[in-house]
Amino acid sequence: MSFRLYLLQRASALVLVPLLAVHLFVIFYATASGLSAASILGRTQGSIGWGLFYGLFVLAAALHGAIGIRNVFAEWAPAHLKTSPVLLAAVLWGTGLVLALLGLRAVYAVVLA
C-alpha cells in the first residue's frame, strides 16, 4: 500500500471515531427513551445538521472501507491480478463509489425525502 493511502486510511479513522461515538450515543439515547423509528425519522426530516453529520460519516466510512477492501484484495488476489496497479485502483474507486452512493442515498432518504 502506498504511504498516501496509509495516511488517508488513518485520517479517515480519526474522523470516524468521534462520528461513531455520537452515532452510538444517539442510538442508545433513542432506544432508552423508547423512541420509535417513525419518531426518530420525524426528528431527522429536514435537518441540515443531521444531513451534514451523516453525509460526512458516509464519506469517511466509504473512503476507509474502500482502502481496506483494496488492501485485502492486494493480499488475497492471485499474483497476476494483485500486481496490476490499474486493477487495484479500479477496486479502490469502484468500492468507494458504491459505498458512498449507497450511503448518501440513505442519508437523503432519512433527511431530505
How would you portray this structure in words?
The mean pLDDT is 92. The protein has five helices and no strands. With 113 residues, it is mainly α. The chain has one domain (3-112): Fumarate reductase/succinate dehydrogenase, transmembrane subunit (3 helical TM bundles of succinate and fumarate reductases, Up-down Bundle), CATH 1.20.1300.10.
Give me the secondary-structure topology.
Blueprint: H1 3-32, H2 37-44, H3 48-76, H4 79-82, H5 85-112
Helix pairs in contact: 1-3, 3-5
List descriptors.
113 residues, mainly alpha, 3 helical TM bundles of succinate and fumarate reductases, 5 helices
Q: N-to-C SSE series?
A: HHHHH
Radius of gyration: 17 Å
Low-pLDDT residue spans: none
Quick one: CATH superfamily?
Answer: Fumarate reductase/succinate dehydrogenase, transmembrane subunit
Helix-strand category? mainly alpha
N→C terminal distance:
39 Å
Question: Within the CATH hierarchy, at the fold level, what is the topology?
Answer: 3 helical TM bundles of succinate and fumarate reductases
Number of E-state strands: 0
Instruction: Determine the fraction of residues in helical runs and give it as a percent range.
Output: over 70%
The shape is: elongated
Output the CATH class name.
Answer: Mainly Alpha
Strand content of the residues, in percent?
Answer: under 5%
**How many discrete domains?**
1
Assign the CATH architecture. Up-down Bundle
What's the oligomerization state? single chain
Mean pLDDT: 92
How is the main sheet built?
none
Count of helical stretches: 5
